Amino acid sequence: MSTATKATERRSLHVKAILGPELYARLSTTKVLLVGAGGIGCELLKNIVLTGFGDITLLDLDTIDLSNLNRQFLFKKKDVKQSKALVAAKTASAFNPNVRITPIHANIKEAQFDVAWFRQYDIILNALDNLDARRHVNKMCMAANVPLVESGTAGYLGQVQPILKDRAECFDCVPKPTAKTFPVCTIRSTPSQPIHCIVWAKSYLIPQLFGEDEDGGELDEAEKQGENAQEIATLRKEAQAFKVVRAALRAPSDTAGSNAAKMVFQKIFHSDILNLLSMADMWRSRAPPTPLDFEDVKTGTFVLNKTSSNSNSVGGACTTTGSSSTKDAKINGANGGASGEKTLSGINGMTPAASGSTTNGGLKDQRALSLQDNLELFVSSTNRLASRLRASEDTISFDKDDDDTLDFVTAAANLRSVAYGIAGQSRWEVKEMAGNIIPAIATTNAIIAGLIVLQALHLLRKAYNSLRNVHVQFKPSMPLSAITMCPPNPDCGVCRDAYTEILCEPALATLGDVVDGILGGGHGDGTGKRDVSVYEEKRVLSDPDWDDNNGRTLESLNVTRGKFLSIVDEDGIYGTIQVAVGVLPPNHPIDGSAIIFPVPLPIPPKKAKSPSSLKRPASDDDNVEPSAKRVKTNGSAPTFSPSKKKRLEEDGLILVDDANQQLDDDDVIEID
Ligand SMILES: Nc1ncnc2c1ncn2[C@@H]1O[C@H](COP(=O)(O)OP(=O)(O)OP(=O)(O)O)[C@@H](O)[C@H]1O
Ligand SMILES: [Zn+2]
């Protein structure tokens, strides 16, 4: 026996003693899937290897970034840009010579990872950082009936949730916390905090300048609806002005394009602010903004309190009750002493490293930026983005890791902050706020990874009474709270559905054949032919009054491997049947049937509810009813031209027209 093997044996003595010989022996053949090799994933991989799990599949779609190295300790600097799954598997294999780790560099949502693939595992451990992937794995685990341990951390906070179909709540049983919301007016007209300016730059300005062109359709529509004509005229003027600067940003750099950055600046920080000032009602209870002037800022002669003289009231009063902005802010060295009295430093927003200086101390990203710094950054980042548009990119959207967009958002948000007398932010802070980043804490990840293993062991032992939802919380008196599992939410649109699977050739199987086959001919099976609607995600493929797609193949409807058909009972008597689409086995005869149906057919549970409370198949982000009254589709996903509001909402923000408006709690903040 080699020395290494002896050392491993010695080390496993403790684990064996704790787990007992039976469970310990079982672990070596237990097939575990670990999804995510990031902060939690690295800790967890180390834990399960050392616990004695012998057959691990590790899946992650990403490559290693330099910024991962502070906490994802399975990676070294030389590994940057390599696959996380491959490197983590290689590093952790050395911890136990008996472990087999199969790395997969892929997205867990890919079609190849269908229900049959999930079913091969004894347990699945999630170490993900986004809701979409979490929801996907949760649903696949419901379909495959495999236990799952879900987890997440956000700074000092963390959570572990064991999930087992029919026994405990699934990930979607409980609505997630509502996203941070801002009234539209606060973002568009009356910001009072740095975050308002950052959201404006990231979610409004970037799409306006670098996103898809707006067709003005929504204004035509608003006009038809008889909305305030004057306000619509103002918005049209604004849209027209955006068209001009958009064109300049795309024009060759030796023509109008050379001046594009200045044009954008003058439009958004001068003309638009003058327009806003003309709405006198808006500034009755709050300090008005100050228009900025490009040349004055550039030459250092800009004076902050140079207010607008235009005071025509055109209404448009905003219902938001934003606090008035403080106008005694100072511009930090902005004017090179030209006026002396106006200096806007980072004020509250300044990091210690940056305090007192614009040029020295701390990391480059953490220093406070002067007004002139911001102007320079604005011009250079606008020019960089414009040259990308001219070169090849049709549209550019914000990405915290895209330096050009981050620089642009930093500069634009800070310039707007100057206009509104709000504290400026360092690039670092803007990245954190715009990217919704909560700094990851390695210790929290480590605690959570340990708790995941404990819950996984309970699941494998079938010690269901020992399962707990565990929270790591910021309470010194009780840093951990363990909550007894709740039964599934009877209204959950994911785990209360009946899951089944067909194996088929999607190019031959028709929608009608699949649905008829699943419903079956009579009692004791799929409960027979009845009025149903059929969906794929949010697409309606058929309903009792519309069967145009029934003769079409699944392939032509884009319902292929890894996807689900949801069969919803229109009378509200039975629960929804979720039909997972899988592939025919390799030995299936060429002249065999195009569809293999499950035996026995699924029996959807009877619902206690009235037809009026019909629930659509769960989806991740809207509250549309399930019935066939939704957008019908011939197979391709419906396309929208999202309004500005919608786009802002897609950024994770719910925009309300009025600060008092009630919100649905369907939207969620992700924790990572
Ligand atoms: N759909 C997915 N399929 C596979 N892996 C995924 C998927 N979504 C997220 N992941 C992986 O989950 C891991 C989450 O880890 P973590 O929260 O530490 O994120 P990170 O990207 O490493 O760090 P940061 O976001 O702070 O830069 C990441 O490695 C990410 O690539
Ligand atoms: Zn559920």
TrEMBL record:
Feature: compositional bias, Polar residues: 633-642
Record domain Ubiquitin-activating enzyme SCCH: where: 191-431
Gene Ontology cellular component list: cytoplasm; SUMO activating enzyme complex
Family that this chain belongs to: Belongs to the ubiquitin-activating E1 family.
GO BP terms, alphabetized: protein sumoylation
Positions annotated as active site in the UniProt record: C185 (glycyl thioester intermediate)
Recorded metabolic or biological pathway in which this protein acts: Protein modification; protein sumoylation
Keyword ATP-binding assigned: yes
Taxonomic classification: Eukaryota, Fungi, Dikarya, Basidiomycota, Agaricomycotina
Domain THIF-type NAD/FAD binding fold stretches: 12-493
The keyword tRNA processing belongs to this UniProt entry's keyword annotation: no
Gene3D superfamilies named in the record: Ubiquitin activating enzymes (Uba3). Chain: B, domain 2, Ubiquitin-activating enzyme E1, inactive adenylation domain, subdomain 1, Ubiquitin-like 2 activating enzyme e1b. Chain: B, domain 3
Keywords: ATP-binding, Metal-binding, Nucleotide-binding, Ubl conjugation pathway, Zinc
Signal peptide range: none
Pfam families: ThiF, UBA_E1_SCCH
Residues holding ATP: 36-41, 60, 68-71, 84, 129-134
Gene Ontology molecular-function annotations: ATP binding; metal ion binding; SUMO activating enzyme activity
Record's protein name: Ubiquitin-activating enzyme E1-like
Region feature (Disordered): 606-647
Annotated source species: Sparassis crispa
